Amino acid sequence: MNVYEEAERALRAAPAHGLLDAIRGVLTRHCRAGAVDLLMADYSLTVLQSVSALPPAAEHLSIDNSPQGRVFGAQEPAHEQRGPATIVHLPVTVRGDRLGVLSVTLPTDACSPAVRSELVDIAEMLAHAITVAERDTDLYRCARRKDRLTLAAEMQWQLLPGHAYRRDEYAIGAQLEPAYAVHGDNFDWSATADHLTLTVTDGMGEGIDAALLSNLTINALRNARRAGIPLADQAALADQAVYARHRGNAYLSVLLLDFELTTGWVQVIDAGSPRLLLLREGTVTAVDFDAQLPLGMFEETDYKAQEFRVRPGDRLVFVSDGVHAVASPAGEAYGDRALARAISATRLLPPAEMPRAVLRELTGHRGRPIPDDDALIVCLDWYGRPTAPDGPPPDDTERTRAHVSPVGGARHASH
Predict the structure, then answer these.
(1) CB neighbours of 81 closer than 8 A, spacing ≥ 6?
(2) Region 109-118: what's the mean pLDDT?
(3) Which pTM was predicted?
(4) Is the pLDDT of residue 304 over 90?
(5) Rounded to whole angstroms, how far apart are CA atoms 250 and 245?
(6) Residue 396: pLDDT band by 50, 70, 90 thresholds?
(7) What backbone phi and psi angles, to 5 degrees, belong to 404?
(8) pLDDT tens-digit profile of 26-54?
(9) C-alpha 104 chain-centroid distance
(10) What whole-number distance in Å separates Cα of residue 207 and Cα of residue 156?
(11) What DSSP state is assigned to residue 333?
(12) 37 Cβ partners below 8 Å, 6+ apart?
């Protein structure tokens, strides 16, 4: 049995909390590993922490200033020489969602290119195993926090699908700040063979009330989506659920999108304040829609989907008002123009890295590290399918189109 097969068997047999021990045993036997450690990225994507030494005893490794952090950011394995030993650092990533780094110390004479290649596959296998194991243990979630989460933040992070996701047609990255005390902002996505549904939510209120409102809305949208009904009806049913509970005293702004992977056509319902900017061929523009009522504001609101089309090479950036409306110490709003500059400056970063880079710049504009409101950024790179057809959809005459305007332009749609 080779090392990959034994690692797979060991992970299947291991208890949920014992995945690292299982991998350590296999690598010790097959590769003469002297040490094996699993480092998890925290919720704010600023530090890596070992699952073997949970907070508060854990020592933090900076994602920005450590060899392990550079592997996490670049998503490429690397190794460093330590006397007669070589330490191999490997990204632990599943379907584009970066969980952490696996560090393996080997005798240098045992660290051949073939062995390093096997370790890459084992690290990916470990990422899949962690995703399943999190249903049954808190170990890996505890390793992701360098500070205690507020109860509202705990509820919000349980809703999220992950920080990133990647397929042949697209890649998504998202980040929410402040990570340890978020209020009501949220994002969600779900993919099938031919569709991607993406939800960007700008919450109302603070603390537990905001978290409960987001939980109700996201789960209402999921329930409607899983019933297979059209996008406009998904929004309507979620609207009814929120209104029935709060009678218009609490509501939620949502940008709801359904991407058709075979063509690049996107149906959109803009029910509030989240914004969409498009980077296409080096130019940033605002994609504007008819503003419709937030979910839960009034009883039995009807929603109408609009459409636009994405092209291979497009980058879409979605932000909550905690980004584009945040004020500097002098009272100047960040706004679409500053956001457009940040989008252009980070155009070479992958979607998984881009939101964090923009949020760092936003901190400089704000003038203090902790925001007063949630700041949410979702970045989507569209690659498309090589066989995607050209031209409008068959029922184009019945479609309502979004308006793509220069940044800072009026917010409207053309029909």
Answers:
(1) 108
(2) 93
(3) 0.91
(4) yes
(5) 9
(6) very low
(7) -100, 120
(8) 999 999 999 999 999 999 999 999 999 87
(9) 28
(10) 10
(11) B
(12) 20, 50, 52, 102, 103
For residue 102, give the nearest of 112, 87, 92 by alpha carbon.
92
- CA–chain centroid gap for 184, Å, is 16
Residue 139: strand, helix, or coil: helix
Virtual torsion, Cα 218, 377, 252, 233, nearest 10 deg: -50
Alpha helices in 134-279, H assignment, sequence order? 139-142, 151-159, 207-226, 231-246
Looking up tokens 């504007």, which residue turns up?
Answer: 288
Which pair of structure tokens corresponds to residue 50? 């070992």
CB 312 within 8 A of CB 384: yes
So what's the architecture of 149-382 in CATH?
4-Layer Sandwich (3.60)
Q: Please answer whether residues 74 and 83 qualify as being in contact, where contact means their C-beta atoms are separated by less than 8 angstroms.
A: no
State how far the Cα of 342 lies from the Cα of 331, in Å rounded to an integer.
19
Kindly state the tokens that stand for 69: 């952090």
274 has a pLDDT exceeding 60: yes
* pLDDT band (50, 70, 90) for residue 336: confident
Token output for 349: 């970063």
Residue 53, pLDDT score: 81
DSSP letter at 396?
A: G
Altogether, the residues listed in the chain come to a count of 415
* pLDDT tens figures, 116-137: 999 999 999 999 999 999 999 9
235-259 average pLDDT score: 96
Q: Return the domain boundaries, the chain.
A: 3-143, 149-382
CATH topology of domain 3-143: Beta-Lactamase (3.30.450)
Q: Is the pLDDT of residue 397 over 50?
A: no
